[in-house]
Amino acid sequence: MSTQQNFIPAVIYARYSSSGQREESIEGQLRECHAYAKHNGFTVVGEYVDKALTRTDKRPDFQRMLRDSERGIFKAVILWKTDRFARNRYDSAMYKYKLKKNGVRLYYAKESIPDGPEGIILESVMEGYAEYYSENLSQNVKRGNYDSALELKTLGVRVYGLRKNADDHFEPDPATAPIVRRIFEEYSKGERAKDIVERLNAEGYRTATGKPFSKTSLPMILRNEKYLGTYVYKDIRVENAFPAIVTRELFDKCQSLLTRHHRSPAANRDTQFLLTSKLFCGKCGEPMTGDGGTGKSGRVYNYYTCNGHRRHKCDKKRVGKEWIEELVLSKLTEIVATDGFIETVADKVVEYQAANTDHRALRALERRQREVEKATANLMKAIEAGIVTPTTKSRLVELEAEHERLTRSIAEELMTDATLERDQIVWFLERFRDGDVNDEAFRAFLVDTFLNAVYLYDDDNLILVFNYSGNNNTVKLKAAETALFKAKSSGFNQLTLPLEKLPKTA
Questions:
Q1: Which residue has better confidence, 72 or 221?
Q2: β-pairing verdict for 162-164 and 170-172
Q3: Full 3-state SS string of 25-69
């Protein structure tokens, strides 16, 4: 029975990028994560692995993990380090939001980030430095790619219908170039893209990645100027860089048909409720979660509803999503910009880090290294005194080998030590003051990093609790006096309106 009660289903996510940097192998990441799971009472129910991929949106197993999280299969994701999740803090905020909404938490095998408000800040700082590293690496890679593009190199890009020749330049592929030409010709004659795709798949043809053709494959092929023999990379554009597969006349005709057939689909995005898991009813203490509905006019209304109210145990009225989110964000950005706030948070994070970082493994290695050094020194004294036997020689070799192993292990522990200096934390947190508050990803990251909880009371006043412990971590807010509205033309403007005029409920 106890085993069932302690059962915490978890999955492991591992990623390796092939940009040339020295990183842990996939096998090493999985080994470390499995050891972490065993030590901390998790039961691993699955693994998600992406190899040689860095862009979050393009990682197939990462996206599969996000989808699976909606099914309630697991409650935790274990990663080797923070930079395995995302090296862009905006992506990180949005994907954490999705996992959190599905009741899933993140854990890191090689970085000590225990529970607690300061731990959230520390995690954000680590992600920020991972992004900084990634940006520097990206700049170096881009610089190398640009130099190669000046020589019209393929840059490792695969294009259906083309292949790489001995000089790393594009040339038509005898096996697939005729299929590309056929696609252009059939589409130019009025064939529907859907019918062309079905025929290609039925005949056994596959894309450059080995997958069946889809409704998105054809437009990508039909719009690709490389089939005209044109090389394009950033501001580099060279006509007739390699033999064309289709004529300019055929290409232009297909572009005209694509424009005529194109219909911009309405945006199909799930509404993002920024305060999910942060907003609580001040009357009964239950979480307030996102909901929506459509009025008679067809207008969509989004709001937060007390979970106690949903169960008919609380009479707290629902509150308009935009009203409460803009109100909280306006106060949050104001407080973050206040003199001394960043320094106070940084001090708390440093204290928290010192109290929670586990250096026991490192200290044990250092202690054993000192013991080996002492034993080696004693043995050397014996040898100098003339006590030389096969045993002393063998023991000296063993001690020297152990010292080498310990030195390497200590270096590895120091490399994975997540401890940050105070000035590093301040430098990172200062960057929040320059963010675009109208950007959805930045808003999510701001709330996820600094905001611990929001309590909304019957008189529409709020209490904001921030992610650091101790004094002055809560702010009482009178909604009627500090309401902010998002102006379409000029961002945020402060308005002071009577409470009854605020569009707070749907």
A1: 221
A2: antiparallel
A3: CHHHHHHHHHHHHHHHCCEEEEEEEEECCCCHHHCHHHHHHHHHH
